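Incident log, structure service

09:12 report received: a user says their structure output differs between two submissions of the same chain.
09:20 pulled the input from the user's history:
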Amino acid sequence: MDIANKNKLPSCWTTVNLGEIVNIKYGKGLPTKKLTERGYPVFGANGIIGFYTDYLYEEEQVLISCRGAYSGKINWSPAKCYITNNSLVLETPSEIKDIKKYLFYALQSADKSKIVTGSAQPQVTINNAIDLIIPLAPHYEQKRIVAEIEKQFSRLDEAVENLKRVKANLKRYKASVLKAAVEGKLTEEWRKKHPDVEPADKLLERILAERRNKWEEAELAKMKKAGKVPKDDKWKKKYKEPVGPGKQNVDNLPNNWVVVTLDQVSAINPRIDKKEIPEYLEVSFVPMPEVGAENGYINVKNTKPFVEVKKGFTNFLEGDVLFAKITPCMENGKMAVVPKLSNGYGFGSTEFHVIRPFYGINPYFIYYLVSNLSYRKEAAHRMIGAVGQKRVSVSFLIETVMSLPPIKEQDQIIKEVQKRISTIDGMIEISLKHVYRLRQSILKKAFSGELVPQDADNEPVKEVLNRTL
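09:34 re-ran on a clean worker, output below:
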């Protein structure tokens, strides 16, 4: 397919469908139980997931992630690597073998939105991938384009490393701030000036009473709907009190604070009544990559009709706290407070636990608790499951013991934390996004023929393809 003129590419360039220049194959399935701790690297959907006793490809390969949240992402596998069927492998003919790096960068710049299909489980099929349109430069220009991209990317990589060093320092500072926040150290002076605030044990009493009342109302409605009107109050004995902290204490607990469990002050993985949502209501859709690491950012701008997401996805509402279940995300701190949603409902990756704080609990106080480095390390330590499939269990969240401040002090803690870290954190994120935009700008110039000078003696690509393929 030649749309070079439409895209105003140089005259010696052309455009091709990906299937015209490479052989696209699925990697080979490999059960996670066969992964080993040593051997040849195994590449899954978005990176190395373990090792195996054998490899499939001697040389590096260009890959397209084809299953799950990373579908459509372009990757580069190492040499002597086993590639699973969660990636498509782009095998290049020996005649154009050295086109790999060019393809790797060109595909990052290409529009891949139409090749990703599926709602419950996004995927890229071979039939869709073969039609992906690629701008193709003459052979020698491909080499110059790759060299220039890598030279400019190298400078950007250096800038990113500098930002990461700053971020690492900020990470340590942030960890100390969050630890101080949930221990009440940030508001020591504030407490001296506000000795008459309602103590947290009164707040806890109201929460426990309210959740019991709601349970009783819901149970009574179920019985009436089934035509069973209770004759006495014996049915109320079925109510299960939330798990409490037992005899555990928190050292140096501030005055007016109380020891609780997360189960007492929030609903863990609650469900909403999907019958109340119109089938074609546009609801916010948040896959795993749309939740930022470390900074709690969450992109809720993407929407889908409810009918496309009502099955198989985690549901959440504004003010819920998302906490990642999977091992890699624990290291990166993927968690967030859900902001305002366009139509009230959110759905997303099943790899998140949802914590819904009860009234009187500031969601950011819960977020600061689960963002605390020591808490995340403990969560990672207590993960359950087989190698490659470890998850944070719901019981870990239910049993989490925490110190709870009064409502007014929660709000003051949020202000103190944000005053200390939000400005610096925001500046780093803005800088990293700027680097990302520069990368995209470089790729756009590269594959529109504007990054390197054109050679008038270049043989038109069409003629080369006719001769070699």
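09:41 both user submissions now match this output. Likely a transient worker issue. Closing.
09:42 reviewer note: The longest helix spans residues 139-183. DSSP finds 14 helices and 21 strands in the chain.
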